[in-house]
Amino acid sequence: MKILVPIKRVPDYQSKVKLTASGDSIDHSTTKWIINPFDEIALEEALRIKERGCANEVVAISIGPLEVEAQLRSALAMGADSAILAKVDQNEIDSAVAASILAEIWKRSEYSLAIIGKQAIDSDASQTPQLLAAKLGLPSAAYASKVTINQEKKQAEVTREIDGGLETVLVKLPAIISVDLRLNEPRYASLPNIMKAKKKPLEIIAAETLNINLKPLIKIHKLVAPEKRKTGKRVENAKELINYLKSEKIL
Asked: Which residues of 168-182 are buried (b: 16+ CB within 10 A; e: fewer)?
């Protein structure tokens, strides 16, 4: 079984995001880039499925400029067997464009499963896995907190958390599964594996050659930085607190 794991390059969640002077885009001049944390969880699960003997190959794929190779090499260092970079030079890649690219890459090989983070921490759209399943006409299971593969029956048992407790669904393979935070804890890449990752195969495909529409459906009109947090006010007792809240029209 061959598993495809899409990963996205996102700004480090610990870094401070700055806007350009025009305010219509993010200033990435000093941005530190990382693998989307949800995608790291997806990659870890794919590696565990392979280690359990239920898969023989894990392929990481990302979409973006040549600089995204750094994140793909990190995925290879974690344990992915090979990687694909769908090279796109444009800045905006929405969920529809990403799903279209991934669908075309999927069709180029015989994948049995795609495991994807449920959302990216930069856009928080949570749409790509479902759009990919729809484009390929494949079953989909979302927000997995546990994944069990049954090779004999060619199906995946996926458990996810819902408001009422846990829900378990069965999907026939090939399928698309999106994963949630509680599924696992991603491993750290060891130094030997980091060195080995430099020699693992990484294929670069120009997205223009896939014969798909690369124009995003979503257009960002304006970005606004969050307001600075106001300083707190110390009060001596509950009465003073209530009076203050009333004066600020909070109560």
From this structure: eeebebbbbbbbbee
pLDDT tens across 36-47, in order?
999 999 999 999
Tokens found for residue 51: 């280690």
Residues in the chain, total = 251
Q: How many CB atoms lie within 10 A of CB 167?
A: 14
Which residues, in sequence order, are CB contacts of 197 under 8 Å at separation 6+?
73, 74, 76, 77, 189
Q: What angle do CA 192, 195, 196 make, to 5 degrees?
A: 85
> What phi and psi, each to the nearest 5 degrees, are found at residue 91?
-75, -40
The first and second tokens of residue 134, run together, are 């729809």
- DSSP labels, 212-250: S----S-------PPPPPPPP---SSHHHHHHHHHHTT-
- Sort residue 189 into left (φ over 0), alpha (ψ -120 to 50) or beta: beta
> Using one digit for the tens of pLDDT, what is the confidence trace for 209-238?
998 999 988 887 777 777 777 788 888 999
Q: How many CA atoms lie within 13 A of 177 on its CB side?
A: 35
CA distances from 236 to 48, 109, 111, 239, 245 (A): 55, 68, 65, 8, 14
